[in-house]
Amino acid sequence: MATTRKFNSTEWRSISGLSLIYGVRMLGLFMVLPLLATYGANYTDSTPALLGLAVGIYGLSQAVLQILYGAASDILGRKRVIAFGLLVFVVGSLLAGLATSIEGLIIGRALQGAGAVASAITALLADQTRDSNRTFAMAIVGASIGLSFIVSILLGPFLADIVGLSGVFYTAAALGLVAIGLLYVWIPAEAAERINSKPSIAEFSQVFKMADLWRLDFGIFALHATLTGLFVVIPLVAGSDLTQVYLYMVLGGVLLAVPAIGLAEAKQLTKPVFMVAIAGLLAACVVMWFGWLPVGHWFALALFFGSFMVLESMLPSIISRIAPAKVKGAALGVYSTGQFLGAFIGATVSGFLYQHYSASAAFGFFGGLLLLWMVISIGLSIPKRTRGRGTEAA
């Protein structure tokens, strides 16, 4: 059991460095989220609709470009593509900081999102971790994203009081440059055999022909549609006790997720734990569908977040096992596209359903997505993990 979590020095450097890079970039994106509604009225031609577009446009540009970045990383190398994406993010942050009109702000935010390096970072992490350690590695990176979100919500308003919204964007640009430095100073070099192995068009086409990859792509779509939808609906129904609600959700979720991930790794029970986690999401949504009852919903949210953490770490790890080695980046690009499209659609649809119908209608929508995911996942075939170096795990 212990050997499944014993990272070697290459893995530790890759995990720690990529967690920092991912977290730093997301910190730069998230810091402005609590600020745009407050400061946005100062921009020329600003309207509530355009401010909403400025908030969400980064997710759309990320979704559109994930496949391109992932495929490019298969051909050009992971580090080159990640560095390019981070530079695009830096340029977008600078433009947003310089903007005086709402149109300029939207362009800057779109460019921030156009540095869509999620698929390339995930592919590089998969390249540099053994299959036996990969799910825990993905979980650590996922935790860095969650931590960056929490820190950004607190840090953004604090910085804005000192340097204004433009200063926050300039800080994001500086963080992007720090991430580029980490990429080349700390992350281990890519394996020469992977860099010199270029995929053919026929090999690329496999990404779109494998049913199991489509099952996983729909899974990440449903997972993030439900997550972002919850963050639209829960604040509207929970009232003023959000801090307490989220505290119970995170702490309870971690307590549930860590042993579940450990069980899946130690006993090679990936498929059973995977299916139980989807069932956990569905059960949580069913509880919330009946109406907001604080104690019951704290348990439901803890169950939801724990199941979410399990699936968020498992999904990219399973894709890295299933996808052909030469097109792993492209496969993760399609996966990341589903993730960001899910976030966009989940937030949009849940807000519409809450406004025109009820919170229960939104929870019913989430439940329908999760039930469909559970049904199509019955046929999912997950390869056993390997115990070797695992840079090109089957």
Describe the structure.
By secondary structure, the chain is an all-alpha fold. It folds into 2 domains: 1-198, Growth Hormone, Chain: A (Up-down Bundle); 201-380, Up-down Bundle (Growth Hormone, Chain: A). The chain contains 15 helices and no strands. The chain has helices spanning 9-30, 36-39, 48-76, 78-98, 102-114, 118-127, 134-185, 192-195, 201-205, 211-238, 242-266, 270-289, 294-322, 328-356, 359-377. The radius of gyration is 20 Å and the shape is globular. The protein starts with 8 loop residues before the first helix and ends in a 17-residue tail after the last helix.
Low-confidence stretches: 388-394
What would CATH call the homologous superfamily of the largest domain?
Answer: MFS general substrate transporter like domains
| CATH-defined topology of the largest domain | Growth Hormone, Chain: A
> How many separate helices?
15
**Beta-strand segment tally:** 0
Rounded to the nearest angstrom, the distance between the terminal CA atoms is 22 Å
Spatial shape: globular
Structural class assignment: mainly alpha
Portion in strands: under 5%
> Which CATH-level-2 architecture of the largest domain?
Up-down Bundle
Largest sheet, in brief, is:
none
